[in-house]
Amino acid sequence: MPMESSGRTALRERLRKGLLGTLMIGAACLGGGCDSRVGIEGTDWHADSGNPAETSADTQTTTAATTDGVGAVPGQPEAAVAVARWAADLRGRGLDEIADRCWTMAPRNVRSMYADPQPILDALAGAGAHSGTTAVWQNAAVTVTAQDRDIATGYACPHVVPTGGEGGFNDADARHTVRRFLSRSTGKPLDPADREDAFPLVCAAGRTWDPEGTGKPANVPLAVNPSKPGTVKTFVDESIKSEWPRGGYITVSVPVTTGTGNQTKQIYTLKSGSEGYCIGDVSG
Prior knowledge:
The structure is a single chain. 33% of the residues lie in helices and 20% in strands. It is α+β, with helices and mostly antiparallel strands. It has 2 domains: 63-167, no CATH class; 171-283, Nuclear Transport Factor 2, Chain: A.
């Protein structure tokens, strides 16, 4: 495993020192539809993180093509390799480190899904299968699924749900989608690889979209250009909140400062799909 850079170590030390001061904010958020990582502005999280290339290198694990402890998926040999790299971290690293490596996922979900590793590892030891756009491992306790697009990166963080329980994506996923969108907009993506062409966060043209419940789906143009940095200068991570307005749609609100210096609250409307949430409308 590569050693952590001195800049990364210093960042972690600063975050540990600041945790007590933000604990009350974090507790309030968990009860009120928000889940900031440490209760600081979204852009401040990255302000002292050093060279993005160094950060990216730090989040890489062993590149050995091993499937140790992970059952093969017929017709998709790369699936076991990508999930095995993650499983090695599950065995040997803390949840905070895994949350950093699994940056496409909401940190709150990472900590809850992976809190009990043994049932997950037991499920992965069995034979896998492929269904739709995911690889699946399952036992009586849990079902473990990894997205094809994550498998393609060589390191796949899977979703874990109780077998027979409800799966899908939740409100924390929706908030994290907006967090990633805004982090890109400020020029500080959670990871250098987090680009729209590789990990789409904006609903594709032609997707069924009916947030007003009219029964007449329409394509809704975005009010914010996700490919243009500087549209949003800063955002308040600890104030990202969500609510379910109707049907399969969810709205996420966040205070931002625009590139022109205006402070406003932006409202994002998202819809869930097979690979997570996409943003279909931005207002404010």
